[in-house]
Amino acid sequence: MRILFLALDINLDRQRGDTVHAMELANGLASIGHAITFVVGAASGHPPTLRSDIVLRVVGGSNRRVVRETLAIAKRSAIDIVYERRSTPKIGFAVKTRRRIPLVMEINGILRDELHFQGRADGRTVRGLLKDRLRGALFRRVDGFIVVSEGIKDDLVARHGVDPRRVLVVGNAVNTTRFQPIAKQSACRRLELESERPRAVFVGNLVEWRDFESLLQATRVLLETVPMFELLVVGDGPARGSFEARAKALLPARTVRFAGEVPHTDVPFHIAASDFGLLPERVRSLDISPLKLFEYLSCGRPVVAFDVPGLDIVRTLGTGILVPPGDPGTLAAAMARLIGSPELVQEMGRTGRAFVERERSWSSVARKTSAYLAEKAARSS
After folding, report:
1. Cα–Cα–Cα angle for 65, 14, 230, nearest 5°?
2. Are 152 and 215 within one domain?
3. Is residue 151 part of a domain?
């Protein structure tokens, strides 16, 4: 198939979760024979991690300009189907109606959750309600949806009246070739870190819907029994300033190391230089499926996470420890348990790696997505 992959909120120069997800899926679809035209909002060039046979187009500016240029791309490339990842299908819907091409949307989260944690209006204003109603009207005319969790599917059905038969749940995944188990000593040598220090890592956007305050408080408790402990933070975002300020106020110098945003190819070494990964997620209205969970597991590292909807997989698989959200004392105890149990860390790491190899590779996600897109394209022909 000739697939127009719209990722217009993506900046390929920023290696964040949304960028990684979009590029890995585009690569996976291309690897099984599809012709991919990948349209993004910003990029300084064709990234080396994006397959060379994928046609990359950068389109920015006003909605009118983006629609015009995207329609021209669809016409030139004789597109069979549009695949758009966005909270509202404005551009994809324009292509669908003007070119009479089926549209499938990918939805990875619920916008009102993000707005809530940012202290912004969450749809209760008149304008918000009108926008939500318009979004629902568009959703009901979209040919199909791929979502990363059952909760998002349920929300589409209950809130927007979408037919559940038009929604496919495909969880997030990981590049199991890039994210492989590496010896801690080897990774520390590469990053010039002390291999003998107990260390936990957080990888991801530094945003309000993560409970960094509880993580810092837990670290302060942990230092009473593990004074050499180090917290490694990989990523950037709007909450970084407050996170750094609180770390300075609460903890001794050199306890928290902020690595900033690093190339995605370097992330596995930061995970491998640590004993376990962290997921300090706040409770949201729906379940979650964070990329970083599968990246930790793919590197053979267990996880310590808050027990929020979507992360129960950690308990079910036995790949880490879940603790009550917002409980620094219990979080500190869980981290201390893993630091004091290297055999348990290794066992959980092996279990996690086996799971992602079996069920959470991007090639598996690409095959499921391909089959769904083929079904939608066939129905409209």
Report:
1. 155
2. no
3. yes
Burial label for 366, CB within 10 Å (0-12, 13-18, 19+), is buried
Residue 270, domain member (yes or no): yes
Pairing mode of beta strands 230-234, 256-260? parallel
Extract the tokens encoding 322: 């879940």
Closest CA to 292 of 318, 270, 309, 315: 270
pLDDT digits (tens, 9 = 90+) for 155-191: 999 999 999 999 999 999 999 999 999 999 999 999 9
Q: What is the pTM of this model?
A: 0.88
Q: Are residues 209 and 352 in the same domain?
A: yes
The candidate with the shortest Cα–Cα distance to 302, out of 270, 340, 359, 344, is 344
